[in-house]
């Protein structure tokens, strides 16, 4: 992680919750709160002006909700500023969560998570990783598969034809929720080799992290709901 403090924007329509998050996060020397917003529209504007590294985003707010705000923030990101969105939710299996991940969120966390989990999640997301375990994302996709676009039947979707056979195989294992170590054991190769394959898959498909790769695999039919 960079020696510079992680810049955080707090977004929640309840001032008391924002105050609680601020008290928790400001006790950490490597985290700093650069601003707050009470709704999605204000969050988008604040992100443009304050350039946070991580946006801690409530998913349900009046007006522009957390999903639409996430979509706008990800769409607006400049090359020099790529903020990560960490969604806060009340329920771990919520259809709004999968919509937020599809919109570009780097993960989600329960609002009642212990303070140490919140702090850890922010650091992980700031480092460019996803905080949602692919296995959790898969459970979400299996449950809410009907909300996904119709799967393609006319052949490989755009992007898949750029992957090697081994990269497609690795993508399938990622979509099943396997870690790099588990995939390495499955394919009898080193974990470093799998890490390289995963990086190539993300780069070729223009995906930000493993969570996005799981969503892509479901949307394109690489893996079907309920498959094992």
Description:
About 3% of the residues have low confidence. This protein folds into two domains: 127 residues, Rossmann fold; 75 residues, Winged helix-like DNA-binding domain superfamily/Winged helix DNA-binding domain (Arc Repressor Mutant, subunit A, Orthogonal Bundle), CATH 1.10.10. With 228 residues, the protein is α/β, with parallel strands linked by helices. A five-stranded parallel β-sheet has the order 2-1-3-4-5, sandwiched between helices. This is Response regulator transcription factor.
Assign the structural class, choosing from mainly alpha, mainly beta, alpha/beta, alpha+beta, or little secondary structure: alpha/beta
Helix content: 40-55%
- SSE string, helices as H and strands as E: EHEHEHEHEHHHHHH
Low-confidence runs: 150-156
Specify the CATH architecture of the largest domain: 3-Layer(aba) Sandwich
* Estimated radius of gyration: 18 Å
Overall form: globular
Strand fraction equals: 5-15%
Modified residues (4-aspartylphosphate): 58
Keywords: DNA-binding, Phosphoprotein, Transcription, Transcription regulation
InterPro entries: CheY-like_superfamily, NreC/VraR/RcsB-like_REC, Sig_transdc_resp-reg_C-effctor, Sig_transdc_resp-reg_receiver, Tscrpt_reg_LuxR_C, WalR-like
Domain HTH luxR-type: 156-221
Secondary structure layout plus pairing:
Layout: E1 6-11, H1 15-25, E2 31-37, H2 40-50, E3 54-58, H3 66-76, E4 84-89, H4 95-103, E5 107-110, H5 115-126, H6 134-143, H7 165-175, H8 180-187, H9 191-205, H10 210-219
Parallel strand pairs: 1-2, 1-3, 3-4, 4-5
